[in-house]
Amino acid sequence: MAAATSGVVRALHRIRRTAARGAALRTAAVREARATLAAVRAAPRRTKRNEAALCLAALAAGLLPLLYVHPHWPVPAVAEACWAALLLPARRRWPAGAVLGIAPLLNGGNMWTIAVMPLVVLLATRRINPPGRAWAAVLATSVLAMALATLVFLFTSRGPFESFGGTALDSVLMLFLPALSGTLLGQRRPLVRLLRERNAYLEQTRVLTAATARMEERARIAGEMHDMLGHRLSLISVHAGALELAAARQAPPLAGQAELLRTTAGTAMEELREILDVLRREEIALAPSSPTPDEAEREPEAVRGTRSDLTTLVSESRRAGVPAELVWTGPDSDVLNPRVRQALHRVVREGLTNVHKHAAGAPTRVEVAHAGHRVEVSVTNGEPPGTGRPMAGNRSGLAGLEERITLIGGSFTAGPVGRAGFRMAAGLPCHDGTGAAVTPVPAVPPALTASAVPAPPDPASVPVASAPYSPSYPPPYPPSDPPDLSAQALTWPRLLGGGCAAILVILPTVAGIAVVLLAQVIR
């Protein structure tokens, strides 16, 4: 009685253990199914379309010929075609399992799936890393295929040559050769990835080197301008001050002209300092859309580009002998973006300067009008009086002004008007007074800095066959620490040789498939 009771208890324990294992298997299966579904949903739409088209093509290749060539066992033939089509998407998540799934097809009766088997093996072994795991899966598949061939030989009417010889030949053509081609391509993928990363690193280094050379040249130009122009402008300012004092005592009518000369020299010195500051500082050269607090403190008391500022410019020109007038339409421009006001000031100043140089004494009209979301400004002069010879020019000022206006999204035109007049006009972007900045159009991409480059990853934590290289991802090496890449491993002959070897290896498989399918059609 005790023995029977203990037997029943042991049986109950075995049932509980089996039920627990079954529950664990069901939980693992549900978890794997959810992970697979999440991976499918997260896949790019292009990948989904390609995989769906590939599965449909494989299914059509295995089923459509059965409508014309009726097999002895139609149900297994249809099952084999469906199984071959399912192995194609499975090779993305379970590459080794997809290779093992080829074993039933090597002994199946649907010969039309012969075109799908090498494709599955090639694509699956490409994704298995290291190559030793791929060859272990291939060896296990061949052993499983031979075991299934033995069962087919024992329980069907197939002969030994058809069962074992056919399976061995199919294993070589449909399994080993595609696996060799796939491993060659799989070893080539990290080399291509490393080559792309090295090219991106070299391109980044080139950009940084160019930025450094540009900054050195800007600093040299700033030094030259400071040493030469600064000295000359200081002398002009000193002599203009002495001339103003002398004119005040000896020729009072000329005192105003001497004062204008002195103040113009002082303004030129201030503008020269601003230009030197721009040349020496890269962050200012990249032109932020709005001034920083420090820059705002350095701005002159009279904000440039406002109505009072332009009135001052016109008044100075009138005092210098040019009958200029200002016509202002609309509100003041003090709410505009600082860069727009600066451009407005430069347009008027350049126009009046050109009048002084090339058409001294000509009547000039400066017009500023707010038109919707733009500010229209123009400087128009008529025919100059007298026969004085104007100063020669090379239009470099107009070219520089046009470039500045284009960078902030404006338009610029300049050309003759009337008999001997000239007109310069610009359309500058405006905003609604909320302080929104005008977005500039960069002429060149901002220079990369060493701090923007991520630190190099730990080589032990990066798999060899990681995700495909993305051009938008920066190279994982700083410019000061170049990657230690073997030049022999990254040569183009080796990369091209790997691809050519993979193609040559797969050629016997392609020829064998063609022969078998042709024989099936003829039969």
Tell me what you see in this structure:
The chain has 523 residues and is an alpha+beta fold. Among the domains are: 46-203 and 510-522, no CATH class; 303-383 and 396-439, Heat Shock Protein 90. The protein is built from 15 helices and five strands. The protein has helices spanning 2-42, 45-63, 74-93, 95-100, 103-106, 117-127, 131-155, 160-250, 255-280, 282-285, 293-298, 307-319, 338-358, 396-407, 492-522, and strands at residues 324-329, 364-371, 374-381, 411-417, 421-429. Strands 1-2-3-5-4 form a five-stranded mixed beta sheet, covered by helices on one side. Helix 12 (307-319) packs parallel to helix 13. It is elongated and about 135 Å long. Residues 283-302 and 432-490 have low confidence and may be disordered.
Alpha-beta content class: alpha+beta
Average per-residue pLDDT, rounded, comes to 75
Number of distinct helices: 15
User: What pattern of helices and strands is seen along the backbone?
Assistant: HHHHHHHHHHHHEHEEHEEH
**What is the topology, as strand order, of the major beta sheet?**
1-2-3-5-4
The description of the largest β-sheet is: 5 strands, mixed
List keywords for this structure.
7% strand, 523 residues, five-stranded mixed β-sheet, alpha+beta, 15 helices
Question: What layout of secondary structure does this protein have?
Answer:
Blueprint: H1 2-42, H2 45-63, H3 74-93, H4 95-100, H5 103-106, H6 117-127, H7 131-155, H8 160-250, H9 255-280, H10 282-285, H11 293-298, H12 307-319, E1 324-329, H13 338-358, E2 364-371, E3 374-381, H14 396-407, E4 411-417, E5 421-429, H15 492-522
Helix pairs in contact: 2-3, 3-6, 6-8, 7-8, 8-9, 8-15, 12-13, 13-14
